[in-house]
Design a protein that fits this description.
CATH superfamily of the largest domain: Aldolase class I
Distance between the termini: 26 Å
Helix content: 40-55%
Number of helices: 14
CATH class of the largest domain: Alpha Beta
Strand order of the largest sheet: 1-9-8-6-5-4-3-2
Order of helices and strands: HEHEHEHEHEHEEHEHEHHEEHHHH
Number of domains: 2
């Protein structure tokens, strides 16, 4: 397939691996890129020297394009930007902030810029800021989520209608059928996170990977809405948050419970009781650990098979 996304990134398949904190290091990013998609290093959980190490190791592991996800609210954003520029990272996926501030600098250095949004209004602002594409991420997604709680199926056509730049769909997508549905809604690529968590190359803790595989329908909930909405697997920490929210606790009290490094404790260190376990609704579909290359191939094969099945149907 050739479209604006494959041409923009120089990749074979319009499949992008999400830059997830504590899960997306150089091993996963290079594996996805080598399989024909676009791998992304998640810098939000990395110190500046750690990001530089991962970028360099990714370069050694693949000769294909890869990206860095850069949360713009990260305390060391400027240091990360300097690493990205110094190491000539070709593509940046920014999130959690205003892309207008840093997009011009990145573009000056020939870097392709994509920003993650949860509304068509924000997507339009990204286009005006000079972004090359947007990721439109629906309510089903793992990790931090939009306050609008708009589902992917509703969000994608609205964003496609409002902007002229390519749209990448995210949130609840983990199969070839899901990818084909996103394309039917007007997307030209998909960003997939949860499916790649359950891979050997993911840097997530083994216990977290198994929890993702074991997850059933209804096991994730959107939480911490008075801080930054985040989709979590249910565990003891989630229940503590829910108890506070049910009695009307304000942000300060929730922030005290959240504390520091709660996500690291869960996803990276494997504390399944007290850790913050960020994952998407598609986790209920995931039932096995598979190498990243196999995941990409499975999605591509299913996309092609279902597309061929539907090709002859008429209403």
């Amino acid at each position: 397939m050739t479209n604006r996304i494959t041409q923009l990134f120089g990749i074979r398949y319009p499949i992008i691996q999400a830059g997830m904190i504590w899960c997306s290091g150089h091993r996963l990013a290079s594996a996805v890129s080598n399989a024909g998609g676009l791998g992304i290093i998640g810098s939000g959980s990395m110190y500046p020297d750690v990001l530089r190490e991962h970028v360099r190791k990714c370069k050694l592991a693949t000769d294909r394009p890869f990206a860095v996800n850069l949360p713009l609210l990260y305390p060391d954003t400027e240091k990360h930007l300097q690493t990205i520029i110094d190491e000539r990272v070709p593509i940046v996926f920014s999130s959690a902030g205003n892309p207008k501030k840093w997009t011009p600098l990145l573009k000056e250095h020939g870097i392709t810029v994509v920003h993650v949004v949860a509304s068509s209004l924000l997507a339009k602002k990204c286009e005006d800021a000079g972004c090359d594409a947007v990721v439109a991420e629906g309510f089903e997604a793992g990790g931090h989520n939009g306050r609008e709680e708009t589902t992917t199926m509703v969000l994608i056509p609205q964003v496609v209608r409002e902007v002229g730049i390519p749209v990448i769909a995210a949130g609840g997508i983990g199969t070839g059928r899901g990818m084909l549905a996103a394309f039917a809604l007007g997307a030209e690529g998909v960003q997939i996170g949860s499916r790649f968590v359950a891979s050997p190359e993911s840097s997530a803790h083994g216990l977290f990977k198994q929890a993702v595989i074991d997850a059933k329908e209804g096991d994730t909930r959107l939480s911490l809405k008075k801080l930054v909405p985040v989709r979590l697997l249910r565990n003891r920490f989630f229940e503590a948050v829910k108890a506070l929210e049910d009695r009307g606790a304000e942000g300060a009290e929730l922030l005290e419970l959240l504390g520091r490094a709660r996500a690291k404790k869960g996803m990276f260190e494997g504390d399944m009781d007290e850790g913050e376990l960020e994952i998407g609704q598609i986790s209920a579909y995931i039932d096995a650990m598979k190498p990243a290359a196999d995941i990409v191939k499975e999605i591509v094969d299913e996309f092609n098979a279902v597309n061929a099945e539907l090709g002859g149907q008429r209403l």
